[in-house]
Amino acid sequence: MPKPNLTLQQKLIKRAFTEIGAGDIDYPIQHRPRIFADIIQLLFHIPSLGLTRGRFQKGEPVVLVIKGAIPVFYKGHPYKTPIKIWVPLGYPRDSPKVRVVVEDQAIMSIKLPHPYVDAGAGGLVNVPYMQAWIEAHSERTLTGLVINMCECFSVDPPVRQRVPPQPPAPVPTFPIPQLPQEQEMQERHEEERQEQVMQERERQEEGKRCKGKRGRGWACGLL
Predict the structure, then answer these.
(1) Per-residue 3-state assignment (H helix, E strand, C coil) for the chain
(2) What is the mean pLDDT of the chain?
């Protein structure tokens, strides 16, 4: 587990105190100490998580959002699963809302199907720890939720890397066999061409000899 960045943690604590303690987000006053304690505990337990705010869906109230990557160990290899946790105004009685978030879908995708993540619902998470939350909310915490997610995702990771399409393999080309008649015709044409070349060379040589003999007064072709 990576060591927490104390400077960053102090900033997160200050922001959480401002958002919760000062009432910037309308959490019930009686629940603010519990919400503040659960969020700070989680941020210290998983240093790769941060704090922001936002709406779970359009039209819903603004709440605190914990976002980042949680550690997953699949078959002995470490991986990171990007998540967002919305802390509802009714927390701790109401269960947090969690999504696995894939920013670049050209590189990564949510496994389909998956027992704990609904890709069709935008990566909505429903692990065993979230079941019967209302009945056991006094014992439920954000840290316990994330630990259960890490355990479930280590058995079956919800995110996988897309395999880029491979270019088609080149089609091998083979020489087209010729029929015997076509091969014989090509050979005959080649012989005729060679013969014409030889005859042309002989005419050129004869022309040179005739030119030399005329210079000495001889008639070409009489010797």
Answers:
(1) CCCCCHHHHHHHHHHHHHHHHCCCCCCCHHHHHHHHHHHHHHHHHCCCEEEEEECCCCCCCCEEEEEEEEEEEECCEEEEEEEEEEECCCCCCCCCEEEECCCCCCCEEECCCCCCEEHHHCCEECCHHHCCCCCCCCCCCHHHHHHHHHHHHHHCCCEEECCCCCCCCCCCCCCCCCCHHHHHHHHHHHHHHHHHHHHHHHHHHHHHHHHHHHHCCCCCCCC
(2) 83
